[in-house]
UniProtKB/TrEMBL annotation:
One of its GO terms (biological process) is carbohydrate metabolic process. It comes from the Bacteria. InterPro entries: 6-hairpin_glycosidase_sf, 6hp_glycosidase-like_sf, Ssp411, Ssp411-like_TRX, Thioredoxin-like_sf. This is Thioredoxin domain-containing protein. It comes from Streptomyces sp. R21. Residues 2-162 form the Spermatogenesis-associated protein 20-like TRX domain. Gene3D superfamilies: 1.50.10.10, Glutaredoxin (3.40.30.10). Signal peptide: none annotated. It holds the Pfam family Thioredox_DsbH.
Amino acid sequence: MNRLGGVTSPYLLQHAENPVDWWPWEPGAFEEARRRNVPILLSVGYSACHWCHVMAHESFEDEATAAYLNEHFVNVKVDREERPDVDAVYMEAVQAATGQGGWPMTVFLTPEAEPFYFGTYFPPAPRHGMPSFRQVLEGVSTAWTDRQGEVAEVAGNIVRDLATRELSYTSAEIPGEEEAAQALLGLSREYDAQRGGFGGAPKFPPSMVIEFLLRHHARTGSEGALQMAADTCERMARGGIYDQLGGGFARYSVDREWVVPHFEKMLYDNALLCRVYAHLWRATGSEFARRVALEAADFMVRELRTNEGGFASALDADSDDGTGRHVEGAYYVWTPEQLTDALGEADAALAAQHFGVTEEGTFEEGASVLQLPQHEGVLDAGRLDSIRERLLAKRAERPAPGRDDKIVAAWNGLAIAALAETGAYFERPDLVDAAIGAADLLVRLHLDDRARLARTSKDGQVGANAGVLEDYADVAEGFLALASVTGEGVWLEFAGFLLDHVIVQFTDRESGALYDTAADAEKLIRRPQDPTDNATPSGWSAAAGALLSYAAQTGAEPHRTAAEGALGVVKALGPRAPRFIGWGLAVAEALLDGPREVAIVGPAGDPGTTALHRTALLATAPGAVVAVGTAESDELPLLAGRPLVGGEPAAYVCRNFTCDAPTTDPERLRGALGGVGER
């Protein structure tokens, strides 16, 4: 029976025609397992996951394997991007049992959803000390049939062990100067001074850490913080992890040098990195950072924007290599012969030298991932543009990677913030319009009349899964950025609806701790809770940041109190694990700075208003919020009671609603807030 045909998840739809009798995560699957007295196979992955595709082809498309699965298990397929709560709970169990995790995640459960055996990818035949998937299935089935009591006992012990891992959190003091300094010291010790970034292979873009470093530099003047941020950004954007032709970043580098990426392109990475490079430009005026920020923004709009105005989740790592094989990176890599075919011999030789394409190759089968030299290239700008255009046109003839078209609320919130700010900084109103279009979609489709947020939609159809903390927090962050850029108070109002829900449904009133799921959400074997960043800011830190910004815009004391209560975890974890709580540290920098509240009072379209507004948006003061409009506006509380000065537009810079003397001079405003201004 095809139970996956009507879902909104592209990942589940990829499996809809498998011979495996898949169920989505729903009560009926567990009822069926109880009725048949069989265990559940839980398989978790996502559409852009290379090894998920491999295991699907090897095992889930195999008739014999499927027949065994159907006879001995109830089989449940979960898209981790639609159900991050399910993924988080069972990934914690996998990591606790095996010391590692990853996707595809393979977990065997009792009919009560209690896990008892774990793994990730299993090959179709024994390999490198790993059992085959069929051997695992047979072993689990035999254990269930012959020793069901023991299995139940093991499962119960695992659930009890997970319960002891509940985060012990009491609202500590908020992080201060000491914690910020210790975090910076910890990062400097883990910093790869030769290659940029932190740690070894695989190496992930440290977006949230870079935001902390930029804010710390802005507040303290630390040149070391700025150097780590700038050098890491330079290395990443010159490496193979960055698409040198079409813009946009791949998920991570498999090596320490940023040369060979895992080729999937995720919306969240590109949204976060677009904002990082825009903020780096704001701090330094780097033309290189400006180019990368705009190229990342254009990539998102060009390749990820959907017909409904939102942004798709990902592009696959794999594509057809032209021979019918589905190969990772086939769309992006080049051989010298392919360059010659696209450019002719003379330009191909120059392109090979410029982009590091060699006969030996830097990837597989003699192909190379395009990179930029660390110093000046061999091509002038005009010729380079011509070569890039021709290579892009030639690449467009190749079979393109698949696109995961589902709209994830949280990731669209990140994209809204990035596009709104990048469009404002670089005077690209089309990017701001793209941000507004995505925000309109979220309000129209994802937000119900009780301000509850749906996690996903696809093709204009909203998904059944409730939003989790990161959805509320990141969408609020996007709406707050739009309010600052556009001066439209409706976005502040929508952010307030979402953040009120965070306080009521996600926050422990006694400790200030945050949970990843709402109090009235589906009950799992435990309520997930994680303050540490992963590929995106943790919902915990993201909520703290949005709550703090909203409080600065409105003076709402409950929201500031909630933000400060949540930030106690940064005081505890920041000095010990700064790489994994970068966004929390960035929010702490905003708190240490105030954050500043900047009210720009003046009529729309007035050159004085525009100049002051632009200067305020370009301010490097950590977490500064901006409101623009007239004092008569009742949608933006920062503007209330703040008149023009001598009949001219004026800027008021405040902390905790206590303001300095207003100014009509953009240069004085820039001096008060920092920022590059016009260049």
